[in-house]
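Check these lines:
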Amino acid sequence: MSRGELLRRDGGGARTARTALALTLAAAFLTACATSADMRPEIGTGWCSDSEPLTLAPDGRRAEEPAEITWIASDHEGAREASAAWCSVVGPPVVIPEPHPVLAGAPTADEFVAGTWNIWIGAADLEAFLLDRLALRCTGAAPVLEGGFRHFALMLQEAHHQSPLVPDVERGAPVPWGIHPEEGLHEEADIVDIAQRCGLALAYVPSARNGWEGADGRGEDKGNAILSSLPLQRVTAIDLPFEGGRKVAVAASVSLPGTTGETRLDLTTVHLDVASTLVRTLMTGNQTRVRQARGMLDGLEVGGFRGHAAVVGGDFNTWVSRDASLKAVADQYPESPPVGPEATRGPFPADHIFFRSGPDGRPTLLDDSYVLVDDYYGSDHKARLLVLQGSQPE
């Protein structure tokens, strides 16, 4: 081998090493960009909407004072532009801050039930679930409290709402296909109608339009919602980092009544993407859910939801219980029940609840109370429930 050949070979090896290093650094940079989730608060009623939230009184009439919603969004300009485009084709959020007086005056117990459930665009028989599992009978007038009633909050995904306030759209607008389940135990049930029939407080924020066509002059959107038997405060919409589509987590607070005084409990409902676009998936190793989970956590911190007792429930769209997005959330909610492998949608463990107690140790998770509901109630997901105890254990 000549000296020239040796130099050429060494040079080629050096170039190969430099190329490999450059690719490694580029991959690390892209992954860091993909998983970073800088979030920032927005001014007014929302960075993607000029309209106030629709605020309703318990009797269904418009409230005299509109509710305030804090908006938090990604600091990434491309994500903001994409989310703003999706936001332009949905209606306003809907807030019912106060439950029916029957619920407001319900006897206070030292236990509170929190649940998460993907209700499949209204296919789920939510009213049957409320009666069977939470002892609340919806009558359309005043709700009836059955024996064993305890105050509760449900963190719901794939809720939907039809309204003339959902704008008309032209072809080319960012409208995902509509989900209109043809099978199920229940007809499509509007989340606002259910809240009113059942006398519950509601915070509903649409993430996307549910198809092009409406009915009777009313378009339809879908998103996350919190239903509560207690008044909702600090309603906050967290527009997650944009991946395959727009996802908005919804957070709010309730004051838990108890024998040792009231305790603030923060509630968050979240729905993560299954996967992003092919290009992003190849670039980031499918960091979609991790990025969105971190966006939610950062958004909660920006919104002032750190340092208090809290529950996060959602459809994380996880295929395995070891998913990195679940670990990211569990790290910040140390009193969470174990992340279980039980199937909640088909064979997959998609749905989970996380919990942390407040600085005074209240509330606590009641032993053996974290359960997977054994009936779909017409949805394509099973619900999860847990019970919190307000007083501090001795």
Observations:
- The longest strand covers residues 152-163.
